Structures are given as structure tokens and as C-alpha cells.
Amino acid sequence: MSPTLFSPLRAGALDLASRIVMAPLTRNRAPGAIPTPLMAEYYAQRADPRRGAGLIVSEATAISPQGQGYADVPGLYGTEQLDGWKRVTQAVHAVGGTIVCQLWHVGRVSHHLLQPDHADPVAPSALRANTKTYLIDNEGQGGFAPTSEPRALHRHEIPAIVHDFAAAARNAVQSAGFDGVEIHGANGYLLDQFLKTGANQRQDDYGGPIENRARLMLEVTRAVADAVGHDRVCIRLSPVTPANDIVDADPQPLFDYLVRQLGPLGLAYVHVIEGATGGPRVVDGRPFDYAALKAAYRQAGGRGAWMVNNGYDPALAEEAVASGRADLVAFGKAFISMPDLAERIRRGGPYQGLDKATMYGGGARGYTDYPALPA
Fold first, then answer.
1. Rounded to two decimals, what is the model's pTM?
2. Which end of the chain, N or C, is less surrounded by CB atoms within 10 Å?
3. What three-state secondary structure class fits 293?
């Protein structure tokens, strides 16, 4: 019998009650980069695997002060931050949920006002991203502003970033109580910037050929696996998304190479964004064969679960799981307005939309006040 969205799954060290995943969702509600009790309530509302997510991937969480790129997003490098996250994971576990923490360094997608000592953001090359970040002014009003000009990382600085990823992973699992970690290697952030030709013009051993551009992501993945165990490590990739002004001249051989290197590492899952993040599943002028990507991973010995993301409604998600095209399906914005999304899928609805005005920043409104169906 073919699996369904509601079939259980073992992904590495993660025992999941269903194939329905809550995707990482930045909500900008962590003042001082510290998770709040309101965040614990928000995640717990969505964590019951019978009604909500079989797995929650936390909002992207900065591995260091330098890794911050948006106002009021959480971190993993201070005691108060870890205590705040511990309240979140305890609340999730109390209702039977499973949660992994997404590890984030934004690279050039930042603003000097968010950086230590108002320094320039860092990147593989000194190329500004034509995108915006989220700032909060002195009156507490949030809004979007263009990113700052970055500086290119010096070769001797790169090992410290690898170390920061590993340290953040240990903090997440050993101190904050997460069940695992997901490395954010997608959407035009630092690891993706090193990977893709549109952001990486380096001439050293982290630039140029595919093997060099993939080096940092692979070094980070191995270091994180050493820190917390390979079966608690996951990674997110976005081969062709234009998010945050990112592009690669020839993504198919690049990502086929990358997943072949990831295959032997024993990861819990690989999380693939198909198409443009939050947009069309097929990007004009950027064809990509996702079936070939998965095949390359399996042929290289990759046994981790295969998670798909972007534009999946319940019917498409069911087809992906039943056909074997995917093991897990991530839903993003649907989980904002429907904390009991799994229950609604099981019942065939009703579905409710979200208030876009409250997506970023603010308090409980548009965060913890979306109604669930009666039990």
C-alpha cells in the first residue's frame, strides 16, 4: 500500500507521526534575538502531530551576531536565547511534537544597522544583493529597506563561520532541546551565495569550479554532523529560486554534484525548494530536473528522507507522497493561518487565509489568534 500524508516515517533520528511538515517561517517576533513565551505558544499550537505538523522546522535562527540579517529574528549564540528556545521546545514536546532548528547565516542579505558595531555584512564577494531586509525604527515601527553593500570574506575568516555553525548546532540540540537541526543552504543566504556564480566571484579555493563553490556548504555540513550526530542533521536547498537576487549559470550539474557529496553523510533529510521560493514552481529560463537530483542523491548512497516544498496544496502533496516522489511535504504560509492544518486536510477543509499585514513583527494578532477547528 502506498504511503499517505498521514503515514508515519523515520527520518534519521526523527520519529515522525505524519509526512506533513511546517516549513520555516520568519515572523520577526524575537526582540533582542531572544525567543519569547508568545513564540512558545505559537509553536505549541501547531505541534500536535494529530492535528498539526508531524515535524516543525523552526524559523531561521542566526548562528552568530554576524549572521543576523533581519530585525527581531532569534539567535542561538547567547544564554538568554537558548533559555528562550528551551521554553519553545518544551512546549512542543509537551503536546507530542517534533521540532528541528534551522541554522542561518544571511551573508550579504543584511544591513549594517543589524551588524556588530554597524560593520558591513559579509559575503563571498563584494556584490550587493538587490533585495530588502526588515528593520525596526526607534519608534518601534517595522519596514523593509535595501540591503547594505557587503565586504568579501577573507580566506582566514571562513573556518570561524564553519565553527559557528557547529557551535550553534550543539547549542540547539544539547542546550535548547531541539530534536535536530536544518542547515539553511537556500534562498540566497550565505551558503547559497558561495554556491552560486551570481554571488561568488572568488579566485581562491572557495570560488570558480563547482567543487570549490560547494566547499563551504560541505564543510559546514560535516562539522554540524560531527557536533550533533549525522542522523539529526538536515539541509535545505533551492536550486533555481531567484530569492534575494541569487542565480547560478548552470544549476543542474552544480546541485547534482552537491547531493552526491551529501549522500554518504547519513543526513536525516534533504529539503528541496522547487521553483521560486513563495512563487511559481517553474522559473522561466531556469529548467531543472528534480527527479534527476533525487536520483543522484540516492545513487550516491543518500538514504535521508526527501522533503519537497513550494506551492503544494493537499492534492499535490498526496500525489507526491503516494508516488514516492517525496517522503515529506513542507507547507509554509498555510501553517500561519491554520495551526491545525493536518486536521483540515484530513477533513477536506475548511481552509482559511492569512492576514498579510501581520506576517512580520507585532504581537499576538495574526500570530497566536488564528482559530482552530473544534476537536
1. 0.98
2. N
3. helix
